[in-house]
Amino acid sequence: MLLTPSELEALRGRLIVSAQAYPGEPMRTPTTMAQVAASAVIGGAAAVRVQGIVDVQFTRSAVEVPVIGLWKDGHDGVFITPTASHALAVANAGAHIVALDGTRRERPDGLDLKQTIAMVHEQSHALVMADCGSLADALNAVEAGADLIGTTLAGYTGERPKTEGPDLDLLATLAASDLGVPLIAEGRIHTPAQARAALDAGAFAVVVGTAITHPASITGWFDAAMQA
Description:
Blueprint: H1 5-9, E1 15-19, H2 30-43, E2 47-51, H3 53-62, E3 67-70, H4 84-92, E4 97-101, H5 113-123, E5 127-131, H6 135-144, E6 148-150, H7 168-176, E7 183-186, H8 192-200, E8 205-208, H9 210-213, H10 215-227
Parallel strand pairs: 1-2, 1-8, 2-3, 3-4, 4-5, 5-6, 6-7, 7-8
Helix pairs in contact: 2-3, 4-5
EC number: 5.1.3.9
Enzyme class: isomerase
Pathway: Amino-sugar metabolism; N-acetylneuraminate degradation; D-fructose 6-phosphate from N-acetylneuraminate: step 3/5
């Protein structure tokens, strides 16, 4: 594997920064995202998460920390690294960890999660992070062979309500379930206090994206507060 057990363990209690921009935005270039990721590392990020094959390649060259890669294809349903082909492409681009949809929903290529994870493990050196939306998702993903579990899709699959901030109840439930793999908190973590709360709820590490790397959203928050 690209990451040794000790390198993975080094992420415990640390911040992972997601550097992504939406299509059509000025920052939506691999060079810019790699620069944003590198800036986050200077600030203390222990790993980074980026979207897109070229973004993974550029970011691998820009940072010396673990890179979590994914490939978004579509906007609804299963679209985070939705097929085995997407996952293998992300791994081959150099991602240390491939993040993919880890829910129990049907995947576009007809393969189940276990088959997809097995292909990544067998055909690459990458680990797999399953982006889940519920306890049932997480338990199924661990059974399928996922190396890490993320709460990325909590509130987006219809199984749980969408909380204003991170789903701390789900985090606590997953932590109490003793999954046996690192539990990564991700989703709607917008303040340092919320990141700390996620760790206190049992997260192994915490991913923060929008609140650090998406200027349009951050500006909107300030503008909305001032217009209220």
